[in-house]
Structure prediction request, 100 residues.
Amino acid sequence: MKDLLPIGSVVLLKDATKKLMIIGILQINPSDNNKMHDYLGVLYPEGFIGEKNNFLFDHEDINDVIFTGYQNPEREVFIKAIGTLYDQQQKQENESVTEQ
Prediction:
């Protein structure tokens, strides 16, 4: 599992001029075959101004981390739990591919 940035982090994506603030992690995109993305972001400093201005992106799309959001023990427990779920999902997907 990759090191995911915390909610509230502000980033600049590759080839972008506008910053994004992360408001969600490990988000599913139902309009793209339920593909999972690392982050959901909104424009910074504007924040949420409608669903059409939400952006799904992955960690490798980030060029620069401008600000790292709040981290505490509660977040660490959360990250560990989703890491376990992610590992289980990857194992199941690998087993499905092997069976085919």
